[in-house]
Structure formats: structure tokens, C-alpha cells
Amino acid sequence: MRGPLAPLFDTCQFVSDVSGAGNNWAVGYMEYGDKYIDAIEESVRTAAERCDSLQTFVVMHSLSGGTGSGLGTRVLSILSDTYPDVFRCSSVVMPGEVDDVVTAPYNTGFALRELIEQSDCVIPLDNDALAAAAERAMGKSQVKRGSEASDKEGDAKSNVAQMTKSKLPFDTMNSIAAHMLSNLTCSLRFPGSLNMDINEIATNLVPY
User: Fold this and answer.
1) Domains (ranges, CATH) in the chain?
2) Could you tell me which of 59, 50, 51 has the C-alpha nearest to residue 88?
3) What pLDDT digit, counting tens, does each position of 48-65 carry?
4) Is 206 exposed, middle or buried (0-12, 13-18, 19+ CB in 10 A)?
5) With the C-alpha atoms ordered 11, 13, 19, 24, is the resulting torsion angle positive or negative?
6) pLDDT tens for each residue of 135-166
7) What average pLDDT is seen over the chain?
8) Any idea which residues carry the catalytic annotation?
9) What is the 3-state secondary structure (H, E, C) of the chain?
């Protein structure tokens, strides 16, 4: 909210608090979900009423902490109940080996169950893979794809595991994820001869 992209967001749509869910899925889903359900519904309703052709909700959250896994999936439940006919797409960040949240496996397990029930399409992002891609994008890794060194299994993970949380290139990792989502939805936002909606993307990606 204080970054260089802050002007892109409508401050009237923010629902915020000063504390997190303590890395506990149940706190995020039940306590904060019940506390902010009315504010979230009102914020979504206001945004939806401005749309000429509402096609999908894209929910972006992580699964390792309590807020992203708990409140994030509670938002999906709210959208499922309030807008049952609108497509729901989730872009979730899966915890990696360098994750320092002890309860991450439990939070992820509880969240995955809700994603299966409430989301029409889930696009998982691996934290370790994002960090490795960010390293390559920043020029820290000079190994070219297809070379003997790059074919050694676990090289990328080993490099990522050696980095501490404070040294992870979060800005670059977020930029990679943002570009993925931007490219995924560009055919919905711009005219073109090969345009498709989000439902067609899911139909082509989901085998059953």
C-alpha cells in the first residue's frame, strides 16, 4: 500500500488489520473469516457492480501462513456462496524447503481441501522454483538450460536452500508471478482474433 504501485489500487477496496493469523489456518478461516465476512462481501460487491462483463475472480494467496491459507480459502467460500456462477481461479504459492513456518504443512493440507471444494481452477506456484527463476533472471546463475551442469537434479534447489529468507529476491519473485498472471489474463483484457475466456483456459488445462 506504500509501494510504487500503490496508485493502481483503490484504497476504498482495502480490508486490512494490524495482526496476522499466527500461522494458524483455523484462526484465519474461522476467526478472521467471521470477523471480516461482511466487509469482504461488501468490497467484492462494490467491485463486481462496476463490471460490464464479470468473468472470473482471481484469488492470489500463499498456503504456508495462517492468513493466506485460512482467510484466503474463506474468501473462496464466500465467493462460491455469493457468486456461484462466476468462475473462481486461485493462484497459490506453495511452501518450499526454505520456509520457516513450522505449521506450513498443516496449513497447506487444510487449504488444499478447501481449494478442491471451492475453486474451479488452481494455479500452483512453487516458492523454490520462483526463487530459482528469480536467480536466473537476476543473472546470478550463468548455467544455460540443457548444459551438463543444469541437468544435475537438485542443483537449483541446492542453491535456493543455501539462501536465507532475508536474502530471497522477493521483488523479482513477485514480478515473475505477476507476469504469469498478466499473460494468463491478457486475452480477456485486450481485443484479438485468438481471444478466449478463462473457462476455455481451464477446459484445456484440466483433464477431467
Assistant:
1) 21-205 (3.40.50.1440)
2) 59
3) 999 888 888 999 999 999
4) exposed
5) negative
6) 888 775 444 444 444 444 455 555 555 554 45
7) 83
8) 200
9) CCCCCHHHCCHHHCCCCCCCCCCCHHHHHHHHHHHHHHHHHHHHHHHHHCCCCCCEEEEEEECCCHHHHHHHHHHHHHHHHHCCCCEEEEEEEECCCCCCCCCHHHHHHHHHHHHHHHCCEEEEEEHHHHHHHHHHHCCCCCCCCCCCCCCCCCHHHHHHHCCCHHHCCHHHHHHHHHHHHHHHHHHHHCCCCCCCCHHHHHHHHCCC
User: Distance between CA atoms of 126 and 71, rounded to whole angstroms?
Assistant: 20
Place of cell 482495502: 14
Cell matching residue 184: 494468463
Q: What angle do CA 164, 168, 174 make, to 5 degrees?
A: 150
Phi, psi angle pair for 99, to nearest 5°: -65, 130
